[in-house]
Amino acid sequence: MSHDFIDDRRKALEEAFFARQNAELIRRLHAPEGQKELSGSTGIQDPKVLERLEAHGIGANALAALSLAPLVLVAWADGTPEPEERRAILSAAGEAGIPTGGAAHALLDHWLAQHPPQDLLATWTDYVHALAPEARAALHKDVIARAHQVAEASGGFLGLTSKVSPTEKAMLKRLEDAFTA
């Protein structure tokens, strides 16, 4: 056998091993706790909304990340999140009491590193609509203010142009519409 074949086989086995390890860690990190526990954490009774949250790996331990999903969506609106946008999101996570190393923080990191799922906005909108009116009103004010901070975190040209791009403005409008629809 050639040395190249053995070396290639070794690399393939190592990659397969680490891929399985990573998949298991992600599974444990985002393992949904079940609809009953998630419903108890959120007050949401709609089984379709609960299923959708679970499909995104959002259990009770990662639910706080969902409240910051709009910030991530604004950061991705005009391409890859800028470092300033990432810092603004992670700062908002800290202010929201999301501990570094926890499931919610890991989910935010994942969404910032890789484009979030296409239906994240729809899932978040369903979540907002399923909240009690008081909780929705409180979330509305906080989310929109933080989303604007993320949009203004980078961009503009020498202070002469708007820091908020047209695609970010469109995303901000979609987020606002989610609360009023």
Overview of this protein structure:
Helix 5 runs parallel beside helix 9, helix 6 packs antiparallel against helix 9 (133-151) and helix 9 runs antiparallel to helix 10. This protein has one domain. With 181 residues, the chain is mainly alpha-helical. Helix content is 70%, strand content 0%. The protein is built from ten helices and no strands.
| Residue share in helix | 55-70%
Q: Please work out how many helical segments DSSP would assign.
A: 10
Strand percentage, roughly? under 5%
Average pLDDT for all residues: 79
For the largest beta-sheet, the strand count, sense and barrel status come to: none
Q: Indicate how many domains the architecture comprises.
A: 1
The class by helix and strand makeup works out as: mainly alpha
Q: Tell me how many strands there are.
A: 0
What series of H and E elements makes up the topology? HHHHHHHHHH
How does the overall form come out from the CA principal axes? globular
Model regions low in confidence, pLDDT < 50 over at least 5 residues? 156-160
N→C terminal distance: 66 Å
The gyration radius over C-alpha positions equals: 19 Å
